Amino acid sequence: MDAFFNMNFLTELLLSTIRMATPILFVALAETYSERAGLVNIGLDGIMSFGALIGFLIGYKTGSPTTGILAGALSGVAINMIYAFCTIRLCAPQIVYGMAINIFAPALASFIYRLSFSDTSTLIQGVSMKAMPIPVLSSIPVLGPLFFNHIPLVYIAYLLVPVTAVFFNRTKAGLNFKAVGEFPKAAETLGINVVLQKYIACIICGALAGIGGAYLTICYTSTYSEGIVAGRGFIALSAVIFGRWMPSGVLLACLLFGFCDALQIRLQLLSPSTPYQLLQMIPYLCTLFVLAFFGIRKSGPKANGQPYYREER
Amino acid sequence: MKKTMKTASLIMAAVLTAMSLAACGSASAPTKAAGSSAETSAAETTKAETTKAEETKAADSSKTSGYKVAMVLDSSVSDGGWGASCYQAMVNAAKDSGWETVYTDNVATADFATVMTDYAELGYNLIFAPGNQYTDAVKQVAEEYPDIKFALLNGTVETENITSILPDAKQIGYMAGALAGLMSKTNNIGFIGGMELDTTKAKLECYEKAAKKVNPDIKVSSAYAGSFSDTAKGKEIASSMVSTYDVDVMFGDASAVDTGAREALAGSEGRYDIGQPGDLGSADHKIIICSVVTDNAALLKACMKDVEADTFGGKTIYGDLSNGCLSIGTFSNLVPQDIQTQYKEIVDQIKAGTYIQ
Amino acid sequence: MKQKENLMKVIVPVLSILVAFIIGGIIMICLGKNPFQAYGFLFSGAFGSSRKIAQTLVIACPLIFTGLTAAFSYKCGVFNLGGEGQFVMGAVASIFFVTKSGIGGIAGILLSLLIGAAAGAVWGAIPGILKITRGLNEMIVSIMLNYVATLFMGYVYTTLLRDGSVPQTFAIPDSTKLAVVSKNFPVHWGVWVALFLAFAGYYFLFYTSKGFKLRAVGLNSTAAFFNGFPVNRYVLFSFIASGAVAGLGGSVELHGKQLRLMGGFGQGFGFDGVAIALIAQLNPIGTAAVAFIFAVLRKGASTLQTGMQIPTAVVDIIQALVIIFAVAGTALLKLPAIRQYINSHMGKKEVTN
Q: Using CA atoms, how far apart are residues B267 and B280, in angstroms rounded to an integer?
């Protein structure tokens, strides 16, 4: 029992938190870009599973994890273009297309996987990304292994948070971007190309969600199995709302999810007699309690989820 | 306005063509890839299958019986675990008997009966349901279609047209436990279950009994992963068992989760795993010291024989050591010769039913 | 004029579904399968006999319930994504009732359905209360509650009400099974309950003053507030009512089809319902119709898969394509440019948006 509650246990717990939060963070940031431009995309699970497969496949064929990740990003963009065209150009309901992607993309992924590997009785081992310790910093005790001894993708994920924050709050492009999600009609009169901005949002969203998926099959494990995404897209969607559509808030939400999940796995080992479902509820209940305690009066971008009909003249 | 309409329809047309091209492309391009990957990754399985196929061809090439078997599966046939092994069992059994096989996988719970009804309507002779969770659906459809036969793996139902197939979980547990007891140096062994199925519980219970009989000092730690596919969780559980309880021999009943556990065991010296249900080890394997092999294909083949001879139904086909459906797999050379001999003697006693009463 | 426009409303979706089928056919040709034979299987699977039509209706039943859940709450402007959790909790409450109380027969069924609906209502009320009192976004709360409900159901079927060897609950007693119409048309009575609810919901929303106020709140809650409507009360009401519909659906599914709880019960029904309601443009009767089309696709796809041995994944792809194209077709009709085009060709001067 005591073996669990020492420094090593805590470090392991925090490390595990970071590992588990990273893919969700990528996808949550993806959704942040999308919703900031007024597009609610619930097809994140689908985009992730497609990115997971293509990333795994290309990584396996080329032997290069980096190429795999890039391929994951590209495939995410490709899949998200279906959503983009239908919701932006045709102004079709966004939730429906998110759903359609959630059916379409995983099916396509499993189809391609079977064509590629036919019937194998064991899971195929692909490539995995190696950790890249940051010189000097990684040798600091405790903090070093916690923060400076990760695979490059983890650093990128956490760097994306301040980058996104600066983009939205300090750059003209970012403000234009936000305007599209708040008051598209007004933005258009200011000379912002609303439709183009929305497409850009979809490209960023697809790429980041695809990377989030590829992270699962290249960094987390090195195998692909159907259903590997396991609802992480919906967790990311919740993290965006939880984080009030702000990158820093989204980061906190993802870390909270990751922490609770890492904790519940360890609690399961500590007390195998407790029904594991009750422990698995912890991340969700924790979110609810934190939310209920702080309360959120803020709502999202005002034109979120609304179709934008451009005036024809 | 006409122009926008035209552009819109043009875009639609372009998207359509692009999508259909993409669909064709994705359908044809990876097929090539499949050919090349078969040479590398799936080479072993392919080889094994071809030799088997050649054998059957030599034996009874004229035998294309015209019988058809269908499998309904809630997971995927490429899950690298339970689904894959059951599918292989069906394919191998059918190959030997000259049957045609089909399957539907990733079936939702609500659709079990629907899919079985479809196969029954199509006149399949035998429907193979690999797991106890299909019991309700099998019973329901079997009642509606009395001419169709159903084989229920790990089932407990016997009717006119349902036969249950039941590998002896107790013997599996004894076999694994005895070997774990013989091999453990730290006197701590581990067990990971997927779900709390009766068969899994029986395996755990007998695993512990047999290990304690071999070595009274042995302690067993066990955990349920709550999943058959969560590889990462298997890894976490196994590594915590090693670090906390100094477990050095493990046995698992959780399909893909066991793969994760083995990854964790590979991280430190002198940690072993006992495989199941296939013969997973080899002479120079560093982790899997031996496997407890269940030959589901042989059990299924017995069902097929019954269908052909019209003697199907009303029974449970047990798979155990005496009818060869359970057997010892390949020993790794990590197992000393004297332990191998000792173990084989114990297994003979288990077979005779004299080891543990 | 109006007729022509209505005609277009039918023709365009039909054409776009046709396009989806053509693309699906091309995929099947690539796989070396005969698409005509395949679609033959699809339609005979869904409509081939009275038994098959009955099966299709039974598949449609839970989708109608969750679809109505979504339609009802969205009409009031609240995005209840918790249909799945409410559905599951309804079933959980019912299984507790029937296994613990021992009340059988008609009384048992009716009480159990009521309790299921009540449980769904309670589960639906949580996001409503949190929204009103703490200002929480109902989407995130209802998604979290979906996970909690599913895990709780897991706890129930693996521990609390476990039936021996398999992780599943006891089956409900035979006397509490919903009766079927006839042996050759085995549709359980829950389907009629679902259809009745669809019509009742339509009547309520469009022909009663309460329904009008509810829709007004949905259209513009601020304006409704200044008109003296008790907005919060309507919001809470719509959460509770939609939750009750979902809970009733879960209970009906338990008594009519599944007969016990096990892993995967209700999975995906919540979000299917949302998509169905949106495709039907939140019209309750339309929701029932779209749910039926979904069921036709599902039943037909299963027959197509078993009959032709096309990978399940391809069948899923075709289903997704049908949704993608059918909805795109409908959306196309609503585009201002297209509307103008249609209207100008029909000699109508004014363009209403």
A: 19
